[in-house]
Amino acid sequence: MSAIHVNHLRKVFKVQKNREGLKGAFQDLFKRQYNQVAAVDDISFQIPRGEICGYIGENGAGKSTTIKMLTGILVPSSGQIEVNGMIPYKDREKFVRGIGVVFGQRSQLWWDIGVIESFQLLKKVYRVPENDFKMRLDEIVERLQLSEILNRPVRKLSLGQRMRCELAASLLHNPSILFLDEPTIGLDIVVKTEIREFLKEMNQKYETTILLTTHDLQDIEALCSRVIMLDQGHIIYDGGLQNLKDKWGKGKEVHFQFQKTYPLSTLHDLTKGLNVKWFKENELAAKVWIPQNEVNVSDVLSRIVGFTDISDIKIFETNTDEIVREIYKSGSAEKAKEVVASNV
Amino acid sequence: MLPMFSAYIDMIRIRFLMMLAYRVNYYSGIIIYAINIGAYYFLWKAIYGANETLGEFTVLQMTTYVAVSWMARAFYFNNLDREIANEIKDGSVAVQLTKPYPYLIFKMMQGLGEGLFRLLLFSVPGMVIVTLIFQIELPTQFDVWLIFMVMIFFSFLINSQINLLTGMFAFFVENNEGLMRFKRIAVDLFSGLIIPISFFPGWAKGVLEWLPFQAITYLPASVFTRRVVGDAIYNAFIVQVIWFLFLSIPIYVIWKMARRRLVVQGG
Predict the structure, then answer these.
(1) What PANTHER family does its record include (chain A) (predicted)?
(2) Closest chain A C-alpha to B234 CA, distance in angstroms
């Protein structure tokens, strides 16, 4: 059974149109005009239990709107959602017992009082039995190193500390699905890594299904087996991360550090017949660009390694950032359809 | 309602802690109320001059009325309207909606926590001091105190309901600041806090009797000052209960509407 099931989901917002000038302002006073804007436009996907799925897209692509519909905050304009076997916006209070939610930019903790007080309240709200609560709290506190900050008021915590507490708060009732809306926003690399590892562990140990939105693709690389990419309310990619790289990555770059100086022409000759491009870095270093699907990295290496004195080799893949930037930039309208189509 | 009870109690506890977190607020509140009671006390004294009664009130009833209605205000007053409007405006209502509790009842509980805090740490000691300084007359019968306590609880309910309605308006308009200010003045003026309703001209009295505001201050304070006695006490109480029940209807309807058209602002 899938944890999340979304079918032809749409959310249309009515946006007020402001007419220009004084005359326009007067007209607006009596008769407002509205534009219909589809924040989420006919998306469908399924997420099986125990999966960590990344949900990415530019600002305003419709990520948060989707999360808000999946968590029962917003009512969809049309289409079906089923999360945990329930329709989120119906019987909201019962539904949210089974999920955990973290909004990176908003706090669910009480600002002015110690963190532990918020946890105590959540225990009552979710009706977690005392023993379960203690066990769970101990585990999370130890894992996220919260013991020293438990009694501090939230407003005195650093962002990293607060975020770790937010995660703890969303997991106290052991939800089967966890929604994270930009959980690593604004955090330093140490905290980010810590949070990623923690999430991975929770996912493995409790089979928690996790759906997270992020702008940090390292989150995705570290956590997600699958990624859904959104643009202007449409899904433009849904599949594995490796697949995305294969499809959109343009090639690899190999950096050589030589012990002697080799002119570019020598290197060109060595790779004759292969469609690669050489660039001179300095006297002792050069790099070669190997296009995807045309030339094998091993072919290039085998031709160079035997015939030159090499002190170091580094292989660079087009990183996901670049790929995604490329997709965002291309507007994706046509290419996107291609991708989606090839996925079906 | 019942399974949530311990969560509600905890919410009251949390609000207590929050109030304690800001001591300056607490102390400045005491000063502001002391100034208000003092000012109105002397103002009414001056207005009465040599008169024994004005607008059906004796001097003693009037000063008692002033003291008790301000002390009751410390209990029923809250800023739920502003809190709700802010949460709607900055979008943090979304976080609240991902928690398994009824948002509005939870808000009421927070208001109750705030009210109980002020009642215990503020009104009760305040009333003792006021009794020592000013000339007022406290009721001696236990049952008057009892019904008064029940009535100011309903004052709290009705005032909070009005606050919920005003606050929820932020769902429908982008800025409800004006409405909130108007409401605040309307409650202070029309509830009989600043001027007892019997001082209003006849036509205004007629109008105010059909509004919920009198149930907040005027009715409980009239019972406390013994201007309303016997069966009339129960009539006053029933008016409160009716308003409480009646106001629940628009709250329910507007909440349902708001949930439908909820646009969480700020992306």
Answers:
(1) ABC TRANSPORTER ATP-BINDING PROTEIN (PTHR42711), ABC-TRANSPORT PROTEIN, ATP-BINDING COMPONENT (PTHR42711:SF1)
(2) 37
Name the H helices within chain B: 5-21, 23-48, 59-76, 80-89, 93-97, 103-118, 124-133, 142-168, 177-190, 202-208, 218-224, 231-261
In a domain, B221, yes or no: yes
ipTM above 0.90, yes or no: no
CATH number of A250-317: 3.30.70.1110
B253 lies in which domain range? 5-261
CA gap A175, A143 in Å, rounded: 17
Domain positions in chain A:
2-246, 250-317
| B2-23 per-position pLDDT tens digit | 678 889 999 999 998 888 888 8
β-strand pairing of B53-54 with A285-291 = unpaired
DSSP 3-state of A289: strand
- B43 in a domain, yes or no? yes
Q: B259 to chain A, minimum CA–CA distance in Å? A: 8
Say which CATH topology domain A2-246 has. Answer: Rossmann fold (3.40.50)
Q: Would B27 be classed as within a structural domain? A: yes
Q: Which residues of A touch B94 (CB under 8 A)?
A: 68, 73, 103, 106
pLDDT in tens, B58-67: 888 999 999 9
